[in-house]
Design brief:
This protein is mainly α. Helices cover about 65% and strands about 10% of the residues. It starts with a strand and ends with a strand.
């Protein structure tokens, strides 16, 4: 069976994605939450998100937020595809993927904001700030597990190797799978 090849993810999107994976994993799994390293990695995460937001406004076609607006109808259509076995892929983010991207960007920013608040005199030692920070980290972890599961599911369902595309920048779509721009 032949495949069609589409260049989708630019180097900045891929570098952002994998840098965020490494930084979040480092802070969630390996650093001492009380350490300066944890704080500096948190600042790096916020800087990465700020860069991604700028790239989402001014970057390449598939990086732009206008290419994957949040859409309840699009999400329902994708769920319908899954339920009925229709094989359709999106060159950029799928509608459900777009919702996850917005969720993760906002969650990471909120984690950064609460983390910063805990370093200030005004909010240091304020219990609800610390609790919110921890809840947001837990939400991010749940979201990441759901994201990875969905990527694996969609890769198997459509035959498009999404992790490979996020490494190479290229989506290889099997014949017979409808392509949405």
């Amino acid at each position: 069976m032949s495949s069609r090849i589409f260049k989708v993810w630019d180097p900045l999107v891929r570098l952002f994605h994998w840098s965020l994976v490494i930084a979040f994993a480092a802070n969630a799994l390996f650093t001492d939450p009380e350490s300066n390293l944890h704080e500096w990695i948190g600042y790096a995460v916020v800087a990465l998100i700020a860069l991604r937001i700028l790239w989402g406004l001014f970057g390449t076609r598939y990086a732009r937020f206008t290419n994957f607006p949040p859409s309840a109808k699009g999400a329902m259509d994708q769920l319908s595809d899954i339920a009925t076995g229709r094989k359709r892929t999106h060159l950029g983010h799928t509608p459900l993927g777009a919702l996850m991207i917005y969720n993760l960007l906002l969650t990471m920013l909120a984690i950064g904001a609460t983390g910063y608040m805990m370093t200030t005199n005004a909010w240091w030692g304020v219990e609800w700030v610390e609790e919110l920070h921890e809840v947001l980290v837990s939400w991010a972890e749940i979201s990441i597990v759901a994201h990875v599961g969905a990527v694996i599911w969609e890769s198997l369902r459509t035959g498009v190797n999404l992790p490979r595309a996020m490494v190479s920048g290229v989506k290889t779509v099997p014949e017979g799978v409808k392509v949405e721009p």
